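User: tokens in, sequence out, please.
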């Protein structure tokens, strides 16, 4: 079974047109009917830095009940404190960059400062019956010249596993991952930490998505982030956003490989139509 994590937050956060809360609610409710395991629906971050997400608490109030779990991104303890009070939210996601340059750009923290934040947020999650998802951002390399090797990513995954973080997602923030790098990381981590759920958050050019998914799947990864139409990318990264893996591509991969999933194809098709009306300039 492949676990689908749909990421409309990633799609919306850098979108040039401000999407009104009412539109976000309608789109997210359509997604909640599809059968995704988890919806990365919004973020409790600086409204100045990411204005598109300023209405996350308001949007949350408008969401219909669903078996799909909700994940909100936070970038610091203050955001985590805002998020944990909401009963509907099961997961808090924290982007932890192993590139010092990007950690500073994304959360205005050095790597040691970010680690302190993670420890405090993990305590908040445990206390409030939430689960923390750590995204190892720039997990496959970075364009800034910061030191990188698979060993750096493995060392950080080790640190987070020791902190009892339940879910660790390796993030290809700027789309540089190659199949051999993906294979080396997941094939090392998945058997080493059976208590941890490892995920893949890939950004990709249209040509490379399939080899990335296949490399992760064949190395034991069962949790995949994606976004309908492949919209998204990190507005704090390079100027040219490399989009997410498209959910329809992930669904195609499952179909071709005979992999079970929980998505309802009829409601998925309806959500894709709605996406076209939400994501216009």
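Assistant: Sequence out:
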């Amino acid at each position: 079974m492949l676990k689908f994590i749909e990421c409309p937050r990633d799609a919306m956060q850098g979108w040039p047109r401000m999407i009104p809360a009412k539109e976000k609610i309608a789109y997210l409710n359509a997604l909640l009917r599809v059968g995704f395991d988890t919806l990365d629906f919004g973020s409790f971050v600086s409204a100045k830095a990411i204005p598109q997400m300023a209405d996350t608490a308001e949007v949350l109030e408008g969401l219909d009940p669903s078996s799909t779990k909700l994940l909100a991104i936070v970038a610091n303890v203050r955001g985590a404190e805002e998020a944990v009070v909401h009963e509907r939210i099961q997961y808090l996601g924290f982007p932890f960059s192993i590139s010092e340059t990007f950690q500073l750009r994304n959360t205005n923290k050095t790597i040691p400062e970010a680690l302190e934040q993670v420890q405090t947020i993990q305590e908040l999650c445990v206390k409030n019956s939430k689960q923390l998802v750590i995204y190892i951002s720039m997990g496959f390399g970075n364009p800034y010249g910061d030191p990188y090797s698979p060993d750096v990513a493995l060392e950080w995954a080790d640190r987070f596993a020791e902190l009892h973080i339940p879910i660790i997602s390796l993030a290809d923030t700027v789309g540089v991952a190659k199949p051999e790098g993906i294979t080396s990381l997941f094939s090392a981590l998945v058997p080493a930490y059976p208590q941890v759920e490892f995920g893949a958050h890939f950004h990709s050019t249209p040509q490379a998505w399939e080899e990335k998914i296949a490399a992760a799947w064949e190395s034991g990864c069962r949790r995949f982030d994606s976004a309908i139409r492949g919209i998204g990318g990190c507005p704090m990264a390079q100027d040219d956003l490399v989009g997410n893996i498209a959910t329809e591509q992930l669904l195609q991969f499952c179909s071709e490989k005979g992999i079970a999933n929980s998505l309802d194809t009829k409601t998925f098709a309806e959500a894709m139509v709605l996406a076209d009306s939400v994501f216009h300039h």
